[in-house]
Structure formats: C-alpha cells, structure tokens
Amino acid sequence: MIAEILSIGTELLMGQIANTDAQYISRRLAELGVNLYRHTTVGDNPARVKEALGEAIARADIVITTGGLGPTEDDLTKEMVAEFFGLPMEMHAPSLEALTERMNRLGREITPNNYKQAMMPRGAIVMPNLRGTAPGAIVESGQKAVAILPGPPHEMQDMFERQLAPYLHARTGVRIDSRFLHVCGIGESSLETLLLDLFHSENPTLALYCGAGEVQARLSARVGANEDSAPLLDPLEKEIRRRAGRAVYGEGRNLTLAAAVVNALRAAGQTVACAESLTGGMLASKLVDVPGASSVLGEAYVTYSNEAKMRLLGVSKDTLRQFGAVSAQCAREMAEGARLAAGADFALSTTGIAGPDGGTPEKPVGLVYVGVASTSGCEAQELHLRGERDWIRELTCVNALNALRLALG
Questions:
Q1: How far apart are CA 176 and CA 220, in angstroms?
Q2: What are the phi and psi torsion angles at 373 (to 5°)?
Q3: Which residues form a coiled coil (predicted)?
Q4: Global confidence as pTM
Q5: β-bridge pairing 62-66 and 2-8
Q6: Which helix (H) or strand (E) holds 311?
Q7: Region class of 123: left (phi > 0), else alpha (psi between -120 and 50), else beta
Q8: Beta-carbon contacts of residue 151 (< 8 Å; ≥ 6 apart)
Q9: Per-residue pLDDT tens over the stretch 51-65
Q10: Fewest beta carbons less than 10 Å away: which of 33, 72, 146, 286?
Q11: Quick check: 184 and 257 in contact, CB under 8 A?
C-alpha cells in the first residue's frame, strides 16, 4: 500500500505551528508496513485543497489528511473530499448525538456552525472523535481511499490508534517492526563504514540517524501480521553490537544517554555529583530529566567563576594561575572536589570556552575539558568541539555522560 499525507492549514504554511501530525503519522505508517512517499502541506483554500487531493490520490492508494474539520467556514476538508468523489454531504445522526452530548457535558451552547461537524460524505466510514467535537471519516472509491483526521495532535493520535490503524492493518496484512540501537563514541561516517555490508539486506534493513554527539541505528523487519520479527532482528542486532562494542549504550526508541547512565548507576547502587562551568547546569538537568534520578544524583554545583571553583570545589589558586580554568588540571580538581563534597561515588566536571567570544590562539572557542572522578582516581578528557555556543554546550554534556557511562564499566 502506498500512502501520502496531506496536511491542511494555513498556520502550517506560515510556520506558526510545527507539523507534528505528519511526523507521528509517518512513523506509524512505517510500523504498519505502509509505504509513504510524499508529504504535502496546503493552506485553507478550497481550490488548492482539491487540487492537492487530486494529485495525491492519483499517486497513492490512500491519502491521509489532517486538519480542516472544525466548525468555521474555512474548515472544508470533508466537503472537498466529498466533492472530489462526487458524493453529497449528509447528517450523520450518531455524530450529531455525540456532539450534542459532549457540548452539554461541557456546559457549552451549540451554535449553528457546530452542526457542520456532524455532516459526512455519503457512505463514509465514520471515525468518532473521543477527544474532541470533530469526527473523522474514511471515504473509499474503488481501490482508493481518503482518511480524514482532525488537526489537534491529541485528537488525531487517538483517532489514528483506535480506528485508522486497525483499518490499515486489515488492508496490508503486514507490519514493520523496528528496533533502535543508540551509539555514542563512533561518528556516523565511521559507523557506516564499520557496518557497510549490513546495509545491503532487503529484510531486515538498517538505517543510521545522526544526533547530538551520537548515532541511532534503526533495524527494521517486514513480517506478516502474526509473524515474529525476532528471528530477523536478533542476528542483526547481535552483529552490530559485536562490531560497535561498548559504543552501543542501549536499545529503545526513546532511550537517552542520560537515562542509560541513570539506569547503570541505579543498577550498581552508586551515585554521582556534577561540577559545571560552561554548561551552567545543563548536565545536571539532563540527569534530572530522567525519572528516578534522585536516587543517584544528590548534589550539583554551578561554579562559573574562579572564586566559586575555589570556594565550593577546592580548586587550587595555583592551578588556576598556572593552567587556567580551561585546563585538564582544573577539570580534574573540579570533579574530585565535587565528589568529596557530595560524598558521591562519581563526579563529572565541565570547563571550557563555548563562545562566541573568549577564545585565544592557545585556547580557542570549542576547547573543552570533561573530568570524571571516582573512588579509584580522576581523569580529564580534552575535546575540540565546533559549532554555535549552545551546540558546544550540548556536545559537552553528551561527552561527559558518555565518559561516565564508560567509567561505570
């Protein structure tokens, strides 16, 4: 099955809101084994909507629209679909009843334009909206179909999962299962070279996606509706882990490096503290974003000035005078000072020059040191990062977390 997404809304074209609907639908179609070749976005203009719909339906087996189901005059998606297929609009009694009940429950008066939302193309498969007032519909014509979904993401996602996904599943008879391996410490080009021959398989398939300081490997297998994908995915995952080694830090679509670190600390019954200069609390914030982080992170220090480094972390005045705040020596003393002050098993430190100003020929913008202290000693890693200020700070956090991950063993 070939699908296209037609996103309707002038606010999308003007960049007033991000098109998260298309992102969500794209991901779910891939999981359902539906081929998606195009996204189209069009404003709330009847002629342009109808033109875009005609072009999409000529190419695809199913077109999925989002938006244009509200009660106002410019919400014309259903009407344009009905007109395209030569179908009259009719009042759908169950939708009207649900609309009336919902409005009464909310204590809101039904205005005449609200009834428009209960009108449907004749013969459509109506998809009730359990999160809002605008029901959706599936209009079929021969081997073609148009699925009409609301624009608000929470309404669209609920309708997709409850009603459109089962419809698509029944039509395709297949699904695509995916696993996501997260790799840190090997760049995208190096990882691709390492895994080059594995990209030539048709089923399962392998794709790489580059993020901030890490790479995500997506392993996908197309199987029948009732088949197990493990026999296809397990050998591929095992081989990637063998080649990439400790650079693979975990599996899961939404896994983060911070979560992997927190989970490893919890499993080991150990704690960490943070001492930050250029990251200014970002590193601790990434850890705190992980539920349960309170069991491993008790204290964090933002020591932006030299005075704070000396007073809170015990960094030596001689170290700052001889080597400066941006140095491996300072990073080590910051990390060890934080570990001792917090009574933690590990401590991370960050110091460097994020820019855009402050660099010198000897210490340019992007020079960063990450310190890792433990009960067995302290080490500092020198980094030469490129990019804007926020990007350098983000990459510093990634490198610090990865250094701790590797130190945990």
A1: 6
A2: -110, 140
A3: none
A4: 0.80
A5: parallel
A6: helix 306-313
A7: left
A8: 8, 9, 21, 66, 67, 68, 69, 70
A9: 999 999 999 999 999
A10: 72
A11: yes
